[in-house]
Amino acid sequence: MGEGSPAGAVSLVKSRFLTTGRGIAGDPALLVTVAVLWALLALFVLFPLVELIQRAFVDEGHVTLAPLAAVLSDENHRSSFFNSLFLAASVGVLGTALGFLFALTSVRGGLGRHWLTCLDAAALLPLVSPPFTTSISIIFSFGPKGFISHDLLGFTNVSPYGYWSTALAETLTYFPIAYLTLRPILAAIDPNLEEMASSLGGSRWRIFRTVTLPLAVPGFANAFLLLFAASLADFATPLILAGNSFPVLPTQAYLQITGMFDFKGGAVLSLVLLVPAAAVFLLQRYWVGRRVYVTVTGKVGQRSRSRALAPWVAWLLTAGCFLVAALIVYFYALLLWASLVRAFGANNSFTLNHYRVIFTEGLPAIRDTLIIAAIGMPLGGLYGVLVGYLIARRRFPGQRAMELVAMINYALPGTIVGIGYLIAFNDPPVALTGGVLIIIACYIFRYSPTGIRATVALLQQIDRSIEEASSSLGAGSGETFRRVTLPLIAPAFFAGLGVVFIRSMTAISATIFLVSISWTLITVRILENMTELALGPAAAFSVFVIVVVFVVVAILSAVLARLRAPAAGAAARSFLGG
Amino acid sequence: MKKIVGALAVVAGLLGLLTGAQAAEPLNVYSIWPENYARPMFEEFEKASGIKVNFLRFSSGEALARVIAEKGNPRVDVLFGGPVETFAAGIKEGIFEPYKSPSFDKLPARFKHADGQWTAIADDPLVFMTNTAFLKAHNLQPPASWDDLLNPAYKNMLQMADARTSGTAVTRIFSVLEVNKRDEDKAFAYLKKLRQNVQVYTKSGGGGTLPVGLGQAGGGIFFIVDALETREKGYDITISLPKEGIGAAAEAIALIKGAKHPVEAKKLIDFATSAAMQSKLSQHKIGFVPANPDVKTDPAVAAVLKGANIIPIDDAYAGANRKRIVDKWVKEVLPAQ
């Protein structure tokens, strides 16, 4: 339909009128949906945050900054704060470097398909397993009698606790996020560009430095900030590995609340985390996030096989990647082994007893976790596409505010969200602690934003005219959404679903505050077992979680591949990257 | 859009159902005893009474925090196991309902609260547990005095529990206080020196047992039950006791005020305080010292404790000072390096 023709102009005017001109007042379905969503967001995002802030800063009706002053003047807390930032920055740098290594090797290394699949599988392993699984392997590998530090390298007096081990564990856990962020960016850099530079006489190193790297810079910034935020929110790894000489804030807040029953102290400590978390989120979203898209939009011409890397460099990069992958696989093999022997390190005879234990005594935790994941998954997926659709396609007052509010629980460290829920929903009017709804709600509002973003990204690539055609043919907004838009954004729906499922199986930082006698979670059992004597069951639980998540991810990937919708690949990426 | 609204309504209804559900369930218990000690006891109880126990394990600090938080609407009926000073601290919060089981009168005074706020089900002395190979490699005798643990040979090689979450840690700190005649300055000076040798303070009382068993740590201070369990699993460890004396925590049970299943809860307390349960400890190789005088201590446990100087922790003193002492430990000992 040519826009120059009168008919085209008329239809354009008409459709504009239909989609944007008809306000929220003229569309009751939209009005109700928006109202319901706002009610849910107010209850599960704003209310807990307000309650948390109030608990921290209001004392008997007076606003007081005394608790904050107390935290800031306490040297332990101050050093925890700086430790958290330092750790997050280290993980950001190391993880981005490692992610870049993997991305470069995967895009420019000239590896075969099967090798790439192997590398990907190893790299994704830490992302789909409970967060502290690498921690426990690190303790056994790098302690005074560690398999690597002592048995292999002969060191006798190394401590597996502290900054380095925590940074290593978090880097290995989160670098796949950087890898998934950087790979598409590198892939989108037209090899012809490098080719041209080469034919103009640039050396490989010079081209890499002056062409490839600058184009990847926004990607670096993005990856760094994502890793920074992930580390800032991680509480389980430091709980096991940081020891007492390197306290970090999320762990301190957890101990303050669960151990010492100091809600106020815990609330204040967690709110201190809010400042860097919010700063990083806003930077990532409004500054770096935009730049990334700019570099990717360049038209890609005829692909030439990249010769950007000298063979020996490619070989070296590949070796580096496989070394890291081998380390990861070794960590998980150790875990598998611990789940299959009677007493790790003392009695190495084979047994399936730990699996028997988790499927009998541990069954309630498995059952609860699967129920929660199964309920949270479709709701989270639906919520994600609904909000994403409203943000990308509809116009209504408060739209930007809704977009921002929907992101809050995602951007905040889990400790804040968990503590906020605990404080807000412990007493009437909305007493939810002890039930299952509080855990499900926590997962939906914390992990669906990935689905929202995937939906928005997808819809931005789909021409509005398709939906306009539907409207102009007389379909209502509901029917258009269901019959036209929904099939188009199905990939985002499945991506959102996947994230909620993976996080339901593996997350702990928020939900550890929300488990109860009636509803418990595998991750919490793993942590409890790990901090007790029961390494065997902890390892068996972890192996079980990894297997289940891998199977579900494989199924969802197959579904996504089948959908073949535009940008299904992008949705698949966001599904793990979030 | 109508369908979406409909779907939302269905979802809301479903969620409402889920919050209301989970009503008719068995006896609910927070256990401070680790699962592998508590579960066999609850299974014996179920065999004897037909009542199923639904339990969740927490370290003592966490369990106490939860019961206090849920005071308005108790979610469990019984707090099971855990050192007595946890229970003493709970009395101040008014979370227990006094109850005297049939075994109550039989028990020595230190194994019960005068009003029946709690009753002891076992006694649990602390011990020093060291890795045998570590001792040999460093030419060390098993530590026989608190000062032995200050030996630089143990630098960065001791593991013990964090007082913020673990009752084991609190009993340990009160042991040091008792050994130092409750002179807090002296006790804390010692604790700060001990800090120099500590590799890590673990969340749970038994958290350090596996590292010690594997030689990742040289030793630590643990409850006898955890030390014996480590040996039982096959790790080569040495158990020793300080000549100055070491604390023992009575492990208690209590009825929660406002319990939803008080009849069944009392049955569990009757069972746990009687010979019926405590005679099973030895059978299940759980190395607690029975509190009920009718039950004989397991020979293996008795052998370890022969000639030991055990100091019972005074629950009134410990309960009254617990929070202050733990705060002080967090502020002064933890960062001392």
Would you give an account of this structure?
The complex is a heterodimer of chains A (578) and B (337). Chain A has 578 residues and is an all-alpha fold. Chain A folds into two domains: 58-298 and 309-336, MetI-like (MetI-like fold); 366-578, MetI-like (MetI-like fold). Helices cover 75% and strands 2% of the residues of chain A. Chain A has helices spanning 6-21, 28-57, 66-73, 75-108, 113-124, 133-142, 147-152, 163-188, 191-199, 204-233, 236-241, 249-259, 263-296, 311-340, 353-360, 363-393, 399-411, 414-424, 437-447, 449-461, 465-472, 477-488, 490-506, 522-531, 535-563, 568-577, and strands at 58-59, 62-63, 341-343, 347-350. In chain A, the strands form two sheets. Chain A has a two-stranded antiparallel sheet with strand order 1-2. In chain A, helix 6 packs across helix 14 and helix 16 runs antiparallel to helix 17 (399-411). The longest helix of chain A has 34 residues, at 75-108. Chain A is globular and about 75 Å long. Chain B is 44% helix and 19% strand. Chain B has helices at residues 2-20, 35-49, 60-69, 84-92, 132-137, 167-179, 184-195, 209-214, 224-233, 262-273, 275-283, 299-305, 315-333; strands spanning 27-31, 53-57, 78-83, 96-97, 119-131, 158-161, 198-202, 219-223, 237-240, 246-256, 289-290, 310-312. In chain B, the strands form two sheets. In chain B, strands 1, 2, 3, 4, 5, 8, 9, 10, 11 and 12 form a ten-stranded mixed sheet that branches. By secondary structure, chain B is of the alpha/beta class. Mean pLDDT of chain B is 88; it is low at 13-24. Chain B folds into two domains: 26-123 and 249-309, D-Maltodextrin-Binding Protein, domain 2, CATH 3.40.190.10; 125-248 and 312-333, D-Maltodextrin-Binding Protein, domain 2. In chain B, helix 3 (60-69) runs parallel beside helix 4 and helix 4 packs across helix 13. Chain B has 13 helices and twelve strands. At the A-B interface, helix 2, helix 4, helix 12, helix 16 and helix 22 of A face helix 1, helix 2, strand 2, helix 3 and strand 7 of B.
